[in-house]
Write a structure and sequence with these properties.
single chain, 230 residues, seven-stranded parallel beta sheet, two-stranded antiparallel ribbon, 9 helices, globular, binds adenosine-5'-triphosphate
């Protein structure tokens, strides 16, 4: 990944090409190495300028997390550290009401312009519920959808979801990057990690080890601040 990614990028020929930006949204309750490693590998596989990791203030389809949005954001910042190409993006924390991804993509589209290659990355588990999201068709007007394979999550798509993505699927990143939005790519990333925040929370609540599931700095902050204790 490069660290450019503003209005345009250079392909080495002297011509500027549209920026390539992904959003990985989530509760990040807390951020773990499955999120971070996936974000780095999406960036590499798709040749992205930046991956914006966007914590939801109020996730619409799940209960309120026990840890505040600002604490989850602080953990995300610690987890990303100085990783090139990853950005901890607070734009959903600055908005009122439920954290709708369509609004976040609209704001990224406005920031990066109509020709930017904008990608919404989701794990397979999150993708399965896409038809229930707010304005699901609008997501494809605003961005491409990249579905990341996740160990232990292989439930087939519902018929509503299959109908929604029919005719959108492409096989290769190059095909995706030929247009600004509207297509779907399934990716099996090189390093698949069976880490979930649910499991991390259960481990913390029972004082079990979370070593090597989280970045050290995130683990240290969780322990120092007494987060996720039962
Ligand atoms: P929880 O267990 O609380 O549901 P989670 O681990 O799934 O949390 P989220 O914050 O809900 O984490 O996930 C944000 C996004 O990252 C979702 O699209 C999810 O599918 C994806 N994701 C989470 N963990 C992984 C993983 N280990 N590998 C690939 N993608 C993941």
């Amino acid at each position: 990944m490069t660290d450019k990614g503003h209005a345009s990028r250079s392909d080495g020929s002297g011509l500027s090409t549209p920026p390539r930006i992904a959003m990985l949204g989530g509760t990040f309750d807390p951020v773990h190495l499955g999120h971070l490693r996936s974000a780095v590998e999406i960036g590499e596989v798709l040749g992205l300028d930046r991956v914006h990791m966007v914590p939801a203030a109020k996730p619409p389809l799940r209960g309120e997390p026990s840890v505040t949005p600002l604490e989850r954001m602080a953990l995300l910042c610690l987890g990303i550290g100085d990783t090139p190409g990853l950005v901890a993006d607070s734009r959903e924390l600055d908005r009122e009401g439920p954290s709708y991804t369509a609004e976040t993509l609209a704001s990224l589209r406005e920031e990066f312009g109509p020709t930017a290659r904008l990608v919404m990355a989701v794990g397979h588990d999150a993708f399965l519920r896409l038809a229930d999201w707010h304005q699901p068709e609008r997501l494809f007007d605003l961005a491409h959808v990249v579905v990341i394979d996740r160990p232990g999550h292989d439930t087939p798509l519902s018929s509503a979801l299959r109908a929604m993505v029919a005719d959108r699927e492409v096989e290769h990143p190059q095909a995706l990057m030929a247009s600004p939005a509207g297509q779907l790519l399934r990716l099996r990333l090189p390093t698949r990690m069976a880490i979930s925040a649910t499991d991390v929370r259960h481990r913390l609540a029972s004082a079990a080890s979370v070593r090597y599931l989280l970045p050290d700095a995130v683990e240290a902050r969780i322990h120092d601040d007494g987060l996720y204790r039962s």
